[in-house]
Amino acid sequence: MSHFSTIPAILLLSLPPSILVGIDLLTFTTSPNFLGIKNLPPGWHFLYTSETTSFSIRDGFWFHIPAPSPSPNSPTLIVRKWDSATSNLIPCSKDEEDKAAEGLEGIWRERLTPYRQSAGGEEKGDWAVLTRHITPALLSRLTGSETDWRITTASCGAQDADHIPGLSAAETGLEERELRFLGIDLKRTWRAGAVGRERTEAVLDRSWALGEVEKRFSSEGDGGGDVVMGEMEVCFLMVLTVANYSCLEEWKRVLGLVLTCRRALRARERWFAGILELLRRQLERGDDVEGGLFDMGDDGGAYLKGLLKGFKMILGQVFGQGEGDDVKEELEELEVFLKAEYGWELSDAFVRKGMLELEDGEQIEMELEDMEGEDERGEYAPVVVEL
Ligand SMILES: *[C@@H]1O[C@H](CO)[C@@H](O)[C@H](O)[C@H]1NC(C)=O
Prior knowledge:
By secondary structure, the protein is α+β, with helices and mostly antiparallel strands. The protein contains 14 helices and 13 strands.
């Protein structure tokens, strides 16, 4: 058996010339000779294409390279082919895969480009850090497919197409596959049937809602995954690579859930420290997002800043001196980064009292951080009535 069959590679057949290809954190325009990427490291990868380099529809898919095994029979060759009707890379039949594998030796040297994580050759290991908690079950749930984990940028064109007679989504070849997110509802974070004090507490402390999500999707965490962190990872990277803004909304919902927990924070200090570390690692790559992850003056930035200020306040209330050091240290590192990068201050909050009004009119008194004249919690905020 030739060694070609044991070094992981991905073949991309029938690509149009000079198309934009991205793998993980690196994008490049293909040369006419290009047929794929070799020397893929083990772990998760996301490969995407776009027919133009300008900001347009991008279509990509996740795949996994298993850790090297002593028996070299593990499938290390992934084969996809360009489908010109839909302008994206689709899986191949077994026959096509076998045929491609046979011709591998002839193209290996000249036509496959070695994997690099980012331009400049500096391998920082970021990609691995940003994909640590993803599992096959999570991607299957998100994409609604067991085998083809595709995520795209919704084209305005595809949505508009419904309204143009004779141009349905089917005719443009773009099928809409909605992503199946965790179903976090920040407007309803209490147990069905909860009343009075229990409900009040669940509004002020979303630990119950966090636990529910984890319970509902617990099977996705099997084998070292973590459903909440995994969701945060995939969603962030889908903003970074294919600019899928449904994923940005989900990422914001996950943070809105996690950063408003008190009871869980006390009980699971290390987990929260991990969340803060992941958030910092993600924000460190925020500049790679076309146009910035969010313009720090806009809603997205204000939303996150408000959440972090609130979290800092909770942290101070939940832990006394000498407690919660893991989380405190991670928050400090995040603060240093946010201050240097965006000039954010998380400490300038002064506490005032206010009333939260729930949808059905019940009012709850709570302490609020300075909202800087506007409601920084965005659309999920209950109405605040000043005392
Ligand atoms: C995000 O990706 C999904 C799955 O490909 C797609 O259905 C959805 O329209 C995309 N949303 C945006 C805003 O790009």
